[in-house]
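Sample intake sheet
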Amino acid sequence: MRRSARLPLAAAVAAAALALPVSAGAQAPGDPVPPAPGPVSSYVSPSGDITLRTRARGAGQIYLELGAQARYFARYRLCVSAPTRRRDCRVFTLRRRGRIYGSVVRWQRSFPPRGVGTYRVTWSAEGNRLGPALVFIIR
């Protein structure tokens, strides 16, 4: 009797998993590599005033981007956790970029590469995290 109660749940979970879109960077074996690099992950605050993004451009160049509608803070802390679980943090300045404020950090210039795998990125300002951890993948 218990098995029959679990079967519909298992079928529903399997159907939901099939309906989910494949996130950027996740591929099944044998799938072709996407032709052009694009956003690996991004976040927009509920109010829309803060945006965070990790972006791959060109031949493996990774950019860590922050955008803000106003200058809510002058400096922010950017932390990158490597696949080895080692975490490196740096402080960067928020600058005016046209009508918004922002910052673009080139990962290779500011943080040491620590091998292949999934890297986690967090942004914080004045002791508060600005959004969820985002990821990028080095192959």
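Comment: Strands lie at 39-44, 50-57, 61-68, 75-81, 87-93, 95-97, 100-106, 117-125, 128-129, 134-138. The helical segments are 2-19, 107-110.
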